[in-house]
Design goal:
The protein has one domain. Helix content is 75%, strand content 0%. The protein is mostly helical and 292 residues long. It is globular, with a radius of gyration of 18 Å. Helix 5 runs parallel beside helix 12.
């Protein structure tokens, strides 16, 4: 199949590329949270997804008119899952700290990694992750917004769907074309909700420039870095490195948003990270947990 995307020479070592992608995504999330008071969570999500779609469509120029019905049958639900995942994650982020939102959301890729397994070792990873989530849960005395936790869980479900459908889509459409077409569908999914929320009506030039930065940091830059890493790293190594994302998210929340976490919440993050690493290392077919 002809690759419709631009050729990128891997001038960045793969491990720094993965770590750079993680920092970029979480930095973008922290910047996005700063836009919530003016644009709202859904308005920020709609603007970020729409701008990301324009950037990716311009970069990869996918042959949309030449895509067949079989390809669109995967692209459309993949894009809907992608748009929903980003929107509900921002709704969670508006209510709970960044590090905890990412930690709860990480249940999605972890579930995909251990799904269908009957090995006792995989039950250990599930129990470890469940213990981490229990430490964050509102009934555990965390004082967190229950709706924020629920939104993060829904984002995790969407992330799992995204991974499963992404595997199918990668066999039908070249990577750059697939993700840009899916991002366009994601825009159509979330834009009506963003407009109905009224936040876009308060958009100003400075806010628009900040939204462009969010789109670059959250989608365009990390996607490019991840593609560099995936060409050089085994998927197992890539997934292990991506398991560090909840910790990086927590640090981004501290540095950029002034968020503070309790000892039990840090323990929850560590448990989910260890569960994710363990599941990846013992999985027969590890899946890369890439988020756009």
């Amino acid at each position: 199949m002809e690759n419709t995307g631009p050729r990128t020479r891997a001038v960045i070592p793969p491990v720094p590329a993965v770590l750079g992608a993680i920092v970029s995504v979480q930095g973008g999330a922290a910047l996005a949270k700063g836009l919530f008071p003016a644009l709202g969570a859904t308005g920020t999500a709609g603007l970020r997804i729409g701008l990301s779609a324009l950037m990716l469509l311009a970069a990869f120029r996918p042959p949309l008119a030449r895509l067949g019905a079989a390809q669109w049958r995967v692209i459309v639900p993949f894009g809907v899952a992608l748009g929903t995942m980003n929107a509900v994650f921002y709704l969670a982020l508006a209510r709970i700290p960044l590090g905890l939102a990412v930690t709860v959301e990480f249940i999605g890729p972890l579930s995909v990694a251990v799904y269908g397994s009957r090995r006792a070792l995989d039950l250990l990873w599930v129990a470890m992750a469940a213990g981490g989530i229990a430490l964050i849960a509102p009934w555990g005395g965390s004082g967190l917004d229950p709706l924020g936790i629920l939104f993060a869980l829904i984002a995790g479900v969407c992330w799992a769907i995204y991974i499963v459908l992404g595997g199918r889509l990668s066999r039908l459409v070249a990577g750059g074309a697939a993700v840009s077409a899916a991002m366009a569908v994601a825009t159509l999914t979330i834009l009506p909700v963003a407009i109905a929320g009224g936040g876009l009506a308060r958009l100003t030039p400075p806010l628009f420039l900040s939204a462009v930065a969010v789109a670059l940091l959250s989608s365009a830059l990390p996607y490019s870095l991840e593609m560099i890493a995936l060409r050089a790293l085994p998927s197992r190594t890539f997934s292990i490195l991506m398991s560090l994302e909840p910790a990086v998210a927590a640090l981004a929340g501290i540095v950029f948003l002034g968020e503070r976490l309790f000892g039990t919440q840090w323990l929850a993050i560590v448990l989910v990270i260890l569960a994710s690493i363990g599941a990846t290392m013992t999985s027969r077919e590890p899946k890369a947990a890439v988020e756009l």
